[in-house]
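[Q] Does anyone have a clean structure-token version of this?
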Amino acid sequence: MGTRTGPARELGHDEAAFRRGIRARCPRAWSRLYELYDFALRRQAAILLPASSMDAENAVGDAWLAAIRSAHKYDPRRPPYPWLARICANVCLEKRRSLLRRLAAMLLAREEAPAQHGAGASAETSAAIRAALGRLWAREREAVALRFLYSVSVGEIAVLLACSPTAVSMAIRRGLDRLRREAGVDLRRVASEAGWEGSSP
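[A] Here you go.
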């Protein structure tokens, strides 16, 4: 019976050479790496960054660049995909944190200048809307307020609330229906008449 004598014999010569090529930044090895795992990284990024396909596309590109820069840290004794997946996850999470920081800054700026999202509506109407929002469930209230009072896009709300754009759209629809049914407030109409940017969910 044969005995294991090292990664090259254990993995097979071609696989061992492929992994060594990754670490050495060999163009042929990296071309094969891209063909094998780019689609999987795109699926991973689409899950972690639901805001838009462009966000995921950019994240995957950044992940490949980060992987190339850190190729010297890759351990050829281990399969490459978990290493790539960790890099991609880190890039995506950093992009999410960056987006959240931008959203927080935007909301803070709008809170300091409330006329920007209340222009065209009377103070009495705005107060009534805010009171009506208190009738909604937390997720509905957050989604409706972000969309209509702060003009945040559905995709950005999805990232902010850590859910899918579909879930955000459903929460907005339920919230608008409940406001109309229970509080007699047609927020879509009020927002449209007032010229608020978020009048279309």
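[Q] Thanks! Anything notable?
[A] The chain has eleven helices and no strands.
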